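S.,

As promised, the zinc ion run. Input:
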Amino acid sequence: MKENLNHLLKYFSTLFIIICCNVLFSQSSSDVFTVVLDAGHGGKDPGNRGNGYYEKNIALSIALQVGSELEKKNDIRVIYTRKTDVFVNLFKRAEIANKAKADLFISIHCDAHNSNAYGAGTFVLGLHANQRNFEIAKKENSVIFKEENYEQKYGGFNPNNPESVISLVLMQEEYLDQSIKAANLIQEFFTKNLKRKNRTVKQAGFIVLKYTYMPSVLVETGFLTNKNEGKYLNSKKGQTEMSTTIADAIVKYKNTISDSFSDVSSDIVPENNPNNTYLKIQITSGSKSLELKSYNFKGLNQLSFSRSGNIYKYFFENTNSFNQAKKFLDKAKLSGFKDAIIVAFNNGQRITMDEFFKLSTN
Ligand SMILES: [Zn+2]
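Predicted complex:
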């Protein structure tokens, strides 16, 4: 009897833990979009001093204003890498974003050049296509010389060596599509809403973008070295306009991402299936939210996903015929999803294959 009671106690405490976990999970799976705003430079690192302005101050002011715009939205969580004039190393900035499991990382800067160059540009991590882009990245990366043990910290990375940059880009590659999408929106909003000169989206080897595990963009809001642009970026009007525009682009990006999910994620039930019982091919799963585009899934179409806590499962196709499902499975495996499996659903709920066969012979 006592043993039975012990069993019962164990059973209920396990049940209790499971229920608690479920509650926690469903809270963390709420649709809050986390954005990390990274004001470039700070403290002992002033950034560029074009026309006597301080890049670190302008970047901070814009980042804080972008944040206060976004904080007005209930479904956006804003995290800053710095909110005051302090030095934060590049590694730490990425770490803050990773710890927050952010959905987007935006680093804000101002450019400088010895010409009269002007205009706003956005960057994603990649190999610089030309010397000019390499120079911009080199300048933004050179801050690591102000850090102790930078060689160890950044794996022997040398900002002055173009070859060294190649090793940077590999890790961010899986977020490249989404980074480009965010960068394009920011650039489009700068050009259309603010009539800023379009310096387009470019790729270059920025260290701060390397260590983040999420779509990441670096914004060069304009040139402090250009007389008019420097004045504009240092003014209240300029900073407000830039901030509002960046915030609007981030909201648009967030909406684009969630729209493409809700469009396709609802389980489409084949019409000729009275039991609402059907099969899909589970192709992959993970903590990363991917847009349901064929280029994210080795060319496959007919995609859907489910989310539980921080885990996303991605599916291919939908059928109530087991033979058809086997053909889809072969196609998925041929496309490179070697671990793909057939999974069964009833009314949107996952069921076992046994249950599927029972229901479908009824
Ligand atoms: Zn900078």
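Residues 40-41, 47, 55, 109, 140 surround zinc ion (CB under 6 Å). The domain at 266-361 is CATH 3.30.70.1070 (Alpha-Beta Plaits).

- D.
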